[in-house]
Design brief:
Elements lengths: L1 H46 L11 H49 L9 H17 L6 H94 L8 H26 L8 H31 L11
Helix pairs in contact: 1-2
Length: 317
């Protein structure tokens, strides 16, 4: 009973949901039809004489085309308004021109056809200048501010050009320095590579020499060991070996250094005779030689004194 009541309650809700879903689908279909009715003429207008390409008429495609159509129509409306505004301004300018022309004709009896070729050229140049300067008219009050603006723009542009030239000059200097440095580094790199090749060859040569010397040293060592074994087997004394002789030579050099001052002291006694009697004889001989030398010296001094002439006395007048 409880389940049957619950089913009776759910049945109206399901039917309501189904009806609501159908109603929403119908609204969507109506909306799609309205959008399609607006999109179709826009597509025909856009493609003109060309046929409209076929497309899948689903909801997403129609929505995109509908948005494009609205944007295009809005843009076309803005363009039409701009065209109308330009037409209105052209009509106003034409009316002002006609008024000024009538005024000149009535007051000064001047017309465009009565102007000379040079005057017409000047007038056209004046109009071209006004258009180039974007002034509202050809009066001095319009030309002077426009020319001042152009002059200020010219000065600003010249200042910017000077700054750019200065920066460009600095960049050129830096570029030149960088190129010089690059060239120098390249030269150094080439020299380093060449030096590396030479040093590598030298290192290989040294390695070969070291290997040769090492092999030679090993050979000499083995030969020395063999010779020492042969000498030891033949009964050679240890004092006659090379190491013992080197040690003895070093000891001999030390002894010579120690005896050198004693030898100098001994040299002063080598001239003396070996006995005291002979020493006395030597002393007497030395005394006699000294006395003879003194006598000879005195005689030479006396002779030198006698040989000097005396000065003659002259009477004082």
């Amino acid at each position: 009973m409880h389940l049957s009541r619950q089913r009776h309650r759910l049945a109206p809700e399901e039917s309501f949901r189904q009806k609501a879903g159908k109603f929403v689908k119908e609204l969507e279909l109506m909306d799609m039809e309205e959008k399609l009715q607006r999109v179709a003429p826009w597509l025909k207008k856009s493609f003109g004489e060309h046929p409209v390409p076929s497309f899948e008429a689903d909801a997403r495609t129609i929505d995109i085309l509908y948005e494009l159509a609205e944007c295009n129509e809005s843009r076309d409306g803005d363009v039409n308004l701009l065209i109308e505004d330009m037409k209105q301004k052209a009509a106003e300018y034409e009316s002002d021109g006609s008024y000024l022309q009538d005024l000149l004709t009535e007051s000064l009896n001047l017309s465009f056809s009565s102007l000379s070729k040079m005057s017409t050229s000047y007038l056209n140049n004046l109009v071209d200048v006004a258009l180039a300067l974007e002034t509202k008219d050809t009066s001095l009050a319009s030309f002077i501010p426009a020319i001042n603006d152009l002059t200020s723009d010219l000065h600003a542009t010249e200042s910017k050009n000077k700054d750019m030239e200065f920066k460009l000059s600095n960049l050129r200097k830096k570029l030149t320095s960088a190129l010089v440095l690059e060239k120098r580094l390249q030269d150094d790199l080439v020299k380093t590579e060449e030096l590396l090749v030479v040093e590598k060859a030298k290192a290989e040569n040294r390695t070969q020499n070291m290997k040769f010397l090492k092999d030679k040293s090993e050979d000499m060592k083995s030969r020395i060991e063999a010779s020492e074994k042969q000498l030891s087997s033949s009964g050679l004394e240890a004092s006659l070996t090379h190491a013992s002789l080197v040690k003895l030579s070093e000891k001999l050099a030390e002894i010579k250094k120690e005896t050198a001052p004693l030898e100098k002291k001994l040299e002063s006694y080598l001239d003396l005779p070996p006995s005291a009697s002979l020493a006395k004889v030597k002393i007497e001989e030395a005394k006699r030689e000294l006395a003879a030398l003194e006598a000879e010296f005195s005689a030479k001094v006396d002779m030198a004194v006698l040989s000097v002439p005396f000065s003659t006395k002259r009477p004082f007048t």
